[in-house]
Specification:
It contains eight helices and nine strands. The chain is of the alpha/beta class. The strands form three sheets. A four-stranded antiparallel sheet has the order 7-1-8-9, with helices on one face. Strands 4-3-5 form a three-stranded parallel sheet, sandwiched between helices. Strands 2-6 form a two-stranded antiparallel sheet.
């Protein structure tokens, strides 16, 4: 892979063999985020699980204390009067049949879809469209609910969803490079605490295998996985 001069310059600032504390990793990632836009800060956690087993297919949600620094677009699929509840709560889009049609036609300009239980029969038919994009509502993530107002407000305030991929890795955005260090540190801690709590009883051996933090355009900074002992 051909790397830019900017990338080659910033990669020299990180020791690829060193395991950093969360505090130091955040500092290094922020220092390396030299793009002309506010880069996102992402975390990747490799787990010692078998995603093919249902009870080890880790997925969950976490309310990051400081959000991710991005305006989250929320669509609520609901019938009256729940659609009005969505509007009042601050949903960007809300409705039923009209949005089912738009999604079927390929529209998906949203970050999160929330739905009431009674519409899931219809929405479920669009699984081939929404599933690959990670947009299908799910009760486990709190996006299939009758408490629409609460769900919308939580997502808007910084609640994110995550799930392990086929390689056993969790990926999530935990803020922006222009956040204050302490805010990023607190977001990382909130995310890791949630991941630790989700450890399945059937997972054998080491649960957290590795942790890395990076900015959109920067290299990964390895975090000492022993930090989870404090979670």
């Amino acid at each position: 892979m051909k790397r830019s001069k900017r990338y080659k310059a910033v990669v020299k600032k990180v020791d690829s063999k060193k395991m950093y504390s969360i505090e130091d990793a955040v500092s290094v990632v922020k220092e390396m985020a030299s793009a002309k836009f506010a880069e996102a800060v992402d975390i990747a956690v490799r787990l010692g699980v078998d995603p093919k087993k249902a009870d080890q297919a880790i997925r969950g949600t976490v309310a990051l204390p400081h959000g991710i620094g991005k305006e989250v677009k929320v669509l609520v699929i609901a019938k009256p009067p729940k659609d009005e509840e969505a509007r009042v709560a601050g949903a960007d889009y809300f409705g039923f049949q009209d949005y089912l049609l738009k999604i079927q036609q390929g529209w998906a300009d949203v970050d999160v879809i929330i739905a009431t239980p009674d519409v899931m029969g219809d929405l479920g038919k669009l699984g081939k469209v929404l599933g690959p994009r990670g947009l299908m509502p799910n009760p486990k993530s709190g996006t299939v609910t009758l408490d629409i107002a609460k769900a919308v407000k939580e997502v808007k305030a910084g609640k994110i969803e995550f799930r392990v991929d086929k390689a056993g890795i969790l990926h999530a955005t935990i803020g922006k490079a222009n956040f204050e260090n302490q805010k990023l540190i607190e977001n990382v801690n909130a995310f890791l605490s949630t991941v630790v709590r989700l450890k399945p009883a059937t997972a054998k051996g080491q649960y957290i295998k590795s942790i890395a933090i990076s900015s959109t355009m920067g290299p990964g900074v390895h975090v000492d996985k022993n930090v989870i002992a404090a979670h």
